[in-house]
Specification:
By secondary structure, this protein is of the alpha+beta class. It has helices at residues 8-13, 17-43, 69-72, 80-97, 110-132, 143-155; strands spanning 48-54, 57-63, 104-107, 136-140, 159-163, 170-174. It contains six helices and six strands.
Length: 176
């Protein structure tokens, strides 16, 4: 943990910590929204910025009332551009706050759809392991994708591990 950063355990113990954490995450969201608005202006793209706080992260989404096709350019193939934009946005937040950000960026609902698909994949893999008794190794995934699968496997009552080196790191679902 870096200096100036508070762990979730320390934050829970401090009085008024929940409000402080939410205020910090809202500040991250505001900084990210300003950065992304500037990016949308430069790229001459229309989109609205939605901000939320979920658990211990700020969530920022770029959405459009009309045609999301133009925004899909910001997602890229398999979310590669989205991942890069998320890192740039986190850097913009870090530059302003001096603290590392775990901000999550979604564009045109890509991550929300991906999360649903990955949760189903994790559940299916868990069921396969339960019925066969054999471990199942899934295809390589990004850290975000692996986290969603790990959560789905845990919800199914099994455990999983990540193995390999980036970018070929994958989830292995293990029998009970």
């Amino acid at each position: 943990m870096t200096e100036g950063t508070t762990s979730a355990v320390e934050a829970e113990a401090a009085p008024g910590a929940d409000e402080n954490i939410v205020a910090r995450l809202e500040q991250e969201g505001d900084i990210a929204a300003d950065y992304l608005e500037g990016l949308l202006d430069i790229a001459d793209l229309d989109g609205d910025i939605d901000m939320d706080v979920e658990g211990d992260r700020a969530l920022v989404s770029i959405v459009s009332d009309g045609n999301d096709r133009a925004l899909h350019r910001l997602v890229g193939q398999d979310g590669e551009v989205l991942e890069a934009l998320q890192e740039l946005t986190r850097l913009a937040v870090h530059r302003e706050t001096g603290e590392r950000s775990r901000l999550m960026l979604d564009i045109a609902g890509f991550r929300a759809r991906k999360r649903t698909e990955l949760a189903a994949l994790g559940s299916q893999a868990a069921e396969q392991v339960k019925s066969s008794g054999e471990q199942v190794k899934l295809a390589p995934m990004t850290p975000f994708e692996r986290k969603v699968v790990h959560d789905a496997v845990a919800a199914a009552g099994l455990r999983s591990e990540s193995e390999g080196e980036e970018p070929q790191r994958c989830v292995v679902v293990l029998p009970a």
